[in-house]
Amino acid sequence: MPRSREEARFRHPRHERRGEPRLPAVAATLVAIALYLFLPQRLLIAPRYVLPALECVLLVPLVAINPRRLTRQTRAFRVLSLMLVALIGASNLVALGILIHELVSAGVKDGQELLVASLQIWLTNIIVFGLAYWELDRGGPVSRTQVPRESLPLADFRFSQDENAGAVQEVSDGSSKAADWVPTLMDYLYVSVTNSTAFSPTDTMPLSSRAKFLMSVESVTALLTSLLVIARAVSILH
Length: 238
Fold this sequence. Notes:
Elements: H1 3-10, E1 20-21, H2 23-37, H3 50-65, E2 69-70, H4 75-104, H5 111-136, H6 141-146, E3 157-158, H7 169-172, H8 176-179, H9 185-198, E4 205-206, H10 209-237
Antiparallel strand pairs: 1-2, 3-4
């Protein structure tokens, strides 16, 4: 058996792991902040740098608590993490609402600017919902790797790896049961991408009411952006 397969089957229990790397989440958050920062001023509800500065202020202590890997968690850490995601998400939804109002208003001529803005909002939507799923599922990224599996909160999502234990060996070796697999940020961003493009779950199913609610909100906002905003902006260009 290849060495990678052996490692997949016999890796250490999750509570002995070093935790998920911090860098991907920081990078995704900064990209979302930057996308909002460069939106046209008329789509912003506050001066351009106010909300991005506040989001960076919330991000700093989160990085300080776990600068390299997510292994420590406090109640304040959880509150700050969820506040940061909620703030980015709320500001993006407000920007989408203003953008839709701008597009349906008479006399809009700068279609190229609004088209770019709609793409920025759509990309931010993918990132922020991916972060939301990542923060909420099974108690968050710290719990998923540091807490024994039998003590984890109920799952919000069912991944294909959770059902692969009975598949052929090269598939089952990487399953949750055989390899103690847990989802990372990339898995939740993938869920967000597929939900924003298919407007429905694909291979990962929502289990909890809050997961279904969040996926519904994401699907509706993505549908509005794709069908109304982008279509209207393209028609303005002509």
